[in-house]
Design goal:
The chain is α/β, with parallel strands linked by helices and 287 residues long. It folds into two domains: 2-70, Golgi alpha-mannosidase II (Immunoglobulin-like, Sandwich), CATH 2.60.40.1180; 97-285, Vaccinia Virus protein VP39 (Rossmann fold, 3-Layer(aba) Sandwich). The chain is 25% helix and 33% strand. Helix 2 (128-136) links the parallel strand 9 (118-122) and strand 10.
């Protein structure tokens, strides 16, 4: 497991009974998490100070209940990167803090490459990885089917004062975009993808992780440069092992001279040995 333990503006204060109490800057939130199956609270009194609580509905979906006034958006920083945080639908805040462990890895890989690196970020959401790669000096093609998420990503690039960096934003279905890039002959040195379990493209195209991920990786191999730096897959799909992702990378990228690793991403709880598992990853990388 790789653990995002270097945050200053984010922490898990406590977690119990299917919920986590988090601090985002000066804002405290309670959000559900299916991995938290134990009942015991370590800091029971802290839970009374939350600014907002996300509760799931029995009929599906959920909503935020505000306990105190919160700004429509606010900023949090991770090292030299700055991000906007907003309370969004389905318990989201626009940022997955556990991915900081991958941001550090990407930044180091790009910096050590000592050459121009072109990154393709698919299912790029609000651009955490885009910001990290741009900060490291790479040019980035940011692809997501949601116009709102792409606008959010632009805000994050601005927040980190990276708006002069070469970032291209594309609102499109990832399959269709990669197919066009193949026809154009465009190549990338690094590919990142963080696909949903289920989703729809900009024109209603259906994505289902189990049925689509292998085909997408196979397609993406055709836009890799002759000297690929890395290929990273993240997943939050229940029931999928990180070894499955590594197997897919081995099948499609095994011909390259690189190594493949996999595991979980996690977040530590404050002043505790408890770690919250948050998702899985697999990485292909070259020296």
């Amino acid at each position: 497991m790789i653990i995002a333990s270097d945050w200053k503006d984010y922490e898990i204060i406590d977690m119990a009974d299917g919920q986590k109490l988090e601090k985002w800057g000066n804002v405290k939130l309670i959000r559900p998490d299916p991995q938290i199956i134990w009942k015991e609270k370590t800091h029971p009194n802290e839970w009374n100070n939350a600014n907002a609580v996300y509760s799931r509905s029995k009929t599906g979906g959920g909503s935020w209940e505000y306990k105190a006034k919160i700004a429509p958006s606010w900023k949090v920083s991770y090292k030299n990167l700055t991000f906007n945080v907003k309370l969004m639908g389905f318990k989201h805040t626009g940022l997955f803090p556990e991915q900081a462990a991958n941001w550090d890895w990407m930044i180091e890989k790009i910096a050590k490459a000592k050459r121009e690196i072109k990154v393709l970020n698919l299912f790029a959401y609000t651009g955490g990885a885009t910001v990290a790669c741009a900060y490291a000096g790479a040019s980035v093609c940011h692809v997501d089917s949601s116009k709102g998420m792409v606008e959010f990503a632009k805000e994050n690039i601005l927040a980190s004062k990276l708006d002069k960096k070469p970032v291209r934003y594309i609102i499109d279905d990832v399959f269709k975009f990669v197919q066009r890039e193949i026809r154009r002959g465009n190549k990338y040195d690094a590919i990142i993808m963080d696909p949903p379990s289920y989703g729809r493209g900009s024109n209603g195209e259906v994505w289902q992780f189990e049925n689509s991920i292998s085909d997408l990786v196979k397609l993406c191999e055709k836009v890799l440069s002759d000297k690929p730096l890395f290929f990273l897959i993240n997943s939050y799909t229940t029931g999928i092992s990180s070894k499955v992702l590594s197997n897919i990378l081995e099948i499609n990228l095994g011909k390259y001279n690189g190594k493949i690793s996999d595991g979980e991403v996690g977040l530590p709880m404050r002043n505790s040995k408890l770690i919250l598992p948050c998702g899985i990853f697999s990485r292909f990388e070259t020296n």
